[in-house]
């Protein structure tokens, strides 16, 4: 997405803090997409990039906190490289449950991207400009986000909502089991 093709062990290079594009070589000093110098803060009017892995948006300086626990702040390109050592969950396993752009959770189906975003952030958010599908899985994610996991007692509960809540809880526990 951001032109990132290097491994975690590769040395870091300058990147655009506004769009995240890597500097192609040392001779190029301005980002071809944004027109700002590599390494300088983004424009005040710019739409700031978000990490496609953990969905965190860069701050006003175009930087994100290091995942290594240090006080360093990194451009988004270096943040993406850090995800190789600090994954948000078991994405390889989650991808095995995927069927096209949907995922089976218990007896229901839901949009894969929405379920992954929920597992990572804990927020039921379809994203900007998209509508949430209100099926049992989405309802279950909303209920778990509001009242917590486990077998909760909800007034006027539906059997399929209860089953979906338990399925979402099992999915969450399995997804985050192997985190480092």
Short description:
It contains 5 helices and 5 strands. The chain is of the alpha+beta class. The chain has helices at residues 76-82, 91-96, 112-121, 136-147, 159-175; strands at 64-65, 73-74, 98-99, 102-105, 108-111.
H/E order of the elements? Answer: EEHHEEEHHH
Strand order of the largest sheet: 3-4-5
The largest sheet is:
3 strands, antiparallel
Query: What is the SS-derived class?
Result: alpha+beta
Residues in β-strands, percent: 5-15%
Radius of gyration: 19 Å
How many discrete structural domains? Answer: 2
How many distinct beta strands? Answer: 5
Q: Runs with pLDDT <50, length 5+?
A: 4-11
Write structural notes for this entry.
The protein has helices at 76-82, 91-96, 112-121, 136-147, 159-175, and strands at residues 64-65, 73-74, 98-99, 102-105, 108-111. Mean pLDDT is 80; it is low at 4-11. It has five helices and five strands, in the order ββααβββααα. The strands form two sheets. It has a three-stranded antiparallel β-sheet. The protein has 180 residues and is α+β, with helices and mostly antiparallel strands. It folds into two domains: 1-85, no CATH class; 91-175, no CATH class.
Secondary structure layout:
Layout: E1 64-65, E2 73-74, H1 76-82, H2 91-96, E3 98-99, E4 102-105, E5 108-111, H3 112-121, H4 136-147, H5 159-175
Helix pairs in contact: 4-5
């Amino acid at each position: 997405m951001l032109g990132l093709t290097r491994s975690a062990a590769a040395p870091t290079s300058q990147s655009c803090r506004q769009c995240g594009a890597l500097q192609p070589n040392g001779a190029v000093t301005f980002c071809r997409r944004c027109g700002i110098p590599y390494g300088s803060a983004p424009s005040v009017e710019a739409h700031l990039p978000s990490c496609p892995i953990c969905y965190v948006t860069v701050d006003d300086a175009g930087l994100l906190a290091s995942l290594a626990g240090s006080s360093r702040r990194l451009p988004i390109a270096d943040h993406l490289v850090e995800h190789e050592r600090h994954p948000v969950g078991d994405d390889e396993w989650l991808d095995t449950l995927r069927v096209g752009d949907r995922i089976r959770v218990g007896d229901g189906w839901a949009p894969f991207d929405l379920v992954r975003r929920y597992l990572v952030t804990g927020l039921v958010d379809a994203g900007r400009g998209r509508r949430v599908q209100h099926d049992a899985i989405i309802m279950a994610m909303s209920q778990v986000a509001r009242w917590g996991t486990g077998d909760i007692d909800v007034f006027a509960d539906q059997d399929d909502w209860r089953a979906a809540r338990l399925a979402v809880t099992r999915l969450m526990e399995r997804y985050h089991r192997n985190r480092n």
